[in-house]
Amino acid sequence: MPRAAKSRQNTLESVPELPPAVPEKENDNEPVKGLSGDLPTLNYPPPPPPPQKSQTFMATSTVEKPPVTRKVSSPFAWFSRARKATSPSRPTSPRRNTASSLQSLTTNPDSNDDGSHQPTLKDRFHILRLQGESAISADENLALPQGRHGRAGSLQGPTKEDGGQLSPPFTPRANSFSAISSPTTKLPPGTVAGDAAGPSEEQTEVNWDLWQSVVYEGPSAVARTSGDELIRAIANGIPQPIRGVVWQVMAESKNDELEQVYRELVARGTDKEVTQPPAVRRISSTGEKESIASSASSVHSDVSATPQVNGNDSIASPERKRMSKDETAALQKLEKTIRRDLGARTAYSKYIASAGLQDGLFGICKAYALYDEPVGYAQGMNFIAMPLLFNMPEEEAFTLFVRLMSKYNLRSLFTAEMTGLHMHLYLFERLLEDYEPALYCHLRRRCVPPNLYATQWFLTLFAYRFPLQLVLRVYDLVLSEGLGAILKFGIALMQRNAQTLLGMKDMVQLSTHLKERLFDVYIDKSPSATSILESGFFGSTSGSDKEVYRADELVRDACAVVITPETLAAYTSEFEEKSRAERDREIELESLRNENANLSTRVRKLELRTQQSDAEHVDLASSLVRTKVENDSLLDENESLKMQVEELRKMVDKQPQEVEDRLKGEMDKIMARNIEVQDSNRGLEEQVQEMEQELVGTKMMYAQLNAEHDALKQKLRDIQNMLASTDEQK
Fold this sequence. Notes:
GTPase-activating protein GYP5; Rab_GAP_TBC_domain; small GTPase binding
């Protein structure tokens, strides 16, 4: 009997008894390693002992509800694969190892806000293994913990009651299990709804011991002892219920501190940022706050600062209250951009399981844009995050997303230079040349380079258009092997489509096929019930047109592609050398451009100076011509003046006597006239003397007349006085 089957049988036999305790953790004294370094160990008490039968029956409701039936498309439907659709339902039994009263469902609190009672991945795997091996329903035997739980069975874990006992109350998720429906024969084969019945054959055995070793010991330890078995198990597909747990274990992404950072980043710019009290942070033994390592996600963000925790932090810090308008506007613009890219563009809205995940998807994109500001948000991140949300809560999906960006170097695909994207496209092109040289030459001749169709493969990990059934398998290999798995899937797809592509001659036809119909070669035209069940795991609102794909065949083809590390290293060196040569060439071209620009500027300056010199030369030439003309005219004028001077000199030399004679005659005339004037002046002087004598005589006569006049006036006054006095006497 195989080891897994024997383990399953032993577990089934022991179900009515006390459930097996959680295996003891190795190195219990050592702290758990996470993105932020050492974290305090979370110690959980053992499960509570089973209640007495009498108490159990007393606590059981008097009205027994029928068991919840399972539906083929529900997340845990494949646990019923061993049963036929017509098999009778399991009889109800009292709930064991759970809080048996309805009151306990409300009295048992969830884990604290600080996450101190959150179950570990090991605890969650243990619960999922018990479910998988015993195939008990949600209201039987072992109830699942209440509160948050991951999609497709990634459970958060039990809560803790007073007294240190774990109490795992559970609220069943709607439509978690339902009855298996009958086939729909009217729909075409190869579709999910065309054959909706569950498989009747036994499900492929799950090696729970192997996956438990992976979760408890780590993939590195298992790879050293059972490497081939682990590779085969991953290639066959991680079981869906534990996929979220195994993904986190392989990526080592579980980090409570980073989850708290996620909650703070999501709340930024909302009312929750002001009203929600911050969770209590763990403080190291040295008394300092723990820092959250950003996993080298940015050269500028080696350590992300942890907000300080004070006793009065129930109200947002004043710094956040005083957030500038620019920061608020930038945050609103970021949120608007993210919401515009969500919705139907994520290609997952058709799945029932995607209902309610849009807020989580928005939160992851927003939180990472704020967490890694140099990269920010870019289209394609939402496609990468959505499959994570299908398998785990949004906080854990964020930590795994950060791990993908840092450890798996997805961040280099979204930087401004996109160095990682260019490198992987070059690697894919070189590998395509090695594996399919004819197809490589054909695409090259038709001008269809890899960056025309393969860019989204790396930016979204095939999630931007291709079926979710295959995308999850791609994620399995990516998380175990890194981005090299995308190269394998790409080469496998090109190999399977080689003949079809070689028959196409048109560039548009080639591009359309490479972008949209590349997975059609893996469509299962006559799918088995097992493949239908696996394909319809999440359910679909448009199942009638959802194809069923041979996922195992795709993974086998991808695993068959052998890409040695030496080959990748050689091609990476080629790319680096080519990039270095291109950078050197660009630097040289840039220097030549700068030098050319400088020389052009210098030439323009010299041309301007030449033009100015030419203009000055023309002006000088014109001035010189004008000066010469003026000189010629002045020479002529000078000659004429010289001739005139010469003539005048001759005239002066000839007429000195005439001048003297004329001057003498004039002088004689003047002398004669002068004598006449003197005689006339003497006569006038004599007349003046005579007139002066007459004037003196006249003045003397005038004075005598004035004296006589005064005497007469005096006599007149005397007479008047006498007359006046006489009149008075009368």
